[in-house]
């Protein structure tokens, strides 16, 4: 199996079986973002415990890239400090720019590395990560 096929399968698995999809009843920072170019919408919720992301959930609608990226991001940031979560977001941004970046925390994220070959799709992949940054800024 080629790497591209594996990456496609990982992306589709997160799209069809999203992790952390849903909402919290209360006690969460909520960030709503959309990508007007393609219509992707996300609502990200972060439950914080001091400066640690205790839990993260998302809801919304969009393409497989957008929603699988949100699923992967919510998995990756759980239990991370604000500083660690922002560092992850910076590394993801680097990945979208074509930089060689590894994600020990969640290797699935690397499946999105091919998105950088399609500039119009980068906004899809980064939507949830931009929501994460806004949520952390809101908390700070």
> Topology as H/E string?
HEEEHHH
Oligomer: single chain
* Biggest sheet overview: 3 strands, antiparallel
Number of helices: 4
Q: How far from one another are the termini?
A: 45 Å
Low-confidence stretches: none
Annotation, overall tally of beta strands: 3
Strand order of the largest sheet: 1-2-3
What structural class do the secondary elements suggest? alpha+beta
- The mean pLDDT is 92
Q: How much strand content do the residues show?
A: 15-25%
Indicate the overall shape.
Answer: globular
Helix content: 40-55%
Instruction: Determine Rg (CA atoms, Å).
Output: 14 Å
Describe this structure in words.
- The protein is an alpha+beta fold and 140 residues long.
- Helices cover 46% and strands 19% of the residues.
- The protein has 4 helices and 3 strands.
- A 3-stranded antiparallel sheet has the order 1-2-3, covered by helices on one side.
- A hairpin with a 4-residue loop joins strand 1 and strand 2 (40-49).
- Helix 1 (3-16) crosses helix 2, helix 2 runs parallel beside helix 4 (119-139) and helix 3 packs antiparallel against helix 4.
- The chain is globular, with a radius of gyration of 14 Å.
Quick rundown:
By secondary structure, this protein is α+β, with helices and mostly antiparallel strands.
Task: Quickly list its features.
alpha+beta; 140 residues; 46% helix; 3-stranded antiparallel sheet; 4 helices
Question: Topology, pairings included?
Answer:
Blueprint: H1 3-16, E1 29-35, E2 40-49, E3 52-61, H2 64-77, H3 82-96, H4 119-139
Antiparallel strand pairs: 1-2, 2-3
Helix pairs in contact: 1-2, 2-4, 3-4
